[in-house]
Amino acid sequence: MSDLKKVFLEKDTTLDFTPFKETRAYGYTCQVFENNKLVHTIAYEIAVDSSHSYAQDGFIFEVDRKTVYLDNAIAASQTEQIADLCSQALYPLKLKVSDENLLLEILNHADIKQRWKKIKDNLSLYYKGKIISALLQKTEKLLYNKTVLTTSLYETWFFDLYFRPIYTTYQHNESLDYFWKSPVLGNKHIRYGVEQSLEENYTATDKIVIKLKGSAVDKRSIQEILQHRTFPKNTLAGVKVKPVHSEMNVEYQLYSEDNSIFSIVAEYQITLQEEKQKTVKIELYHLPESATFRPAKTEKAVPVTPTSIPVEDEDYIFDISTIAVPKKKQKSDQMILGSPPKVIQLYIPGPYPPDVKKSLWKRIFSIFKKKKKIIEYRQNPWKKTTT
Which one in 90, 98, 105, 132 has a CA-CA gap of 20 to 30 Å to 311? Predict the structure, then answer.
């Protein structure tokens, strides 16, 4: 019998979020595997602040992304460098977030447009040609449309996983049933039927665990998804096709003091061809200044309160991991999915080297040592329809 503390003291338990007072630094990594062999890695550090706003009737989050590392190094090719510079217009990003933890609105859109104008002017001085011109026009069209830009944030893994409806009421020994759309193929989303549940006990380190497990319920074939089809055209035309096959597992760990996110570990598997399997593994960990860090408890914080009351297109701008990277020759020590990951050596060239005192990967790995409610995300993923 487990000696761990119980999360559920009654049948219903509600999780509420309390803004954290300090800036949280997170280490983010995304690894892409084909047939269990690592083919691509992206890593960066991202800073998150949160606060409550009565004027905005919700929570305010500020997100600022640091240097991006592709396959162990910063952007090297001209295309990667340009995409990285374009993405810098987005940060820092100020967001309005619902009580359930869904993105509602970009609050500093004017700042983004102002930053973009300076970046565009600088790029136009150094880069010429039709390709660059088309890229800049496409980027500007997206950044200037606030509604489309807000929606497109869910086309990147950090925003897709960090801002999900995890703050809600859970039933003991029951799961919440959702429909999720996830960017497994860049901005080509796949729809999943997901079971979301709250673990009965706290972890040994006093964390709350939320687990999600799902399978694709998308009726489109993999070819139709890759062709940007928004509906199963072949099936409707009477042509028999095999729907896309994909599985997903996500685990959230939350600090018990304020229910803020400590870590997210996600794995998505998708069959591209009969003998070709793609796996995407995403990890996000809080990187505290001290190994003994715990959030401050506040009067507003309600970690886990028992209650008996029933209750590969535009996405390159934000995630340059979608840029095609020339395939390298296979090495005998190539990483295999499931094996311990290698430590990435971060090479930072001049002339503007960031002050990195400690390896991002070492900080990440140091962490290891120490009812049926149907919600469908439609065109705007933060709007929900209960059926």
Answer: 105
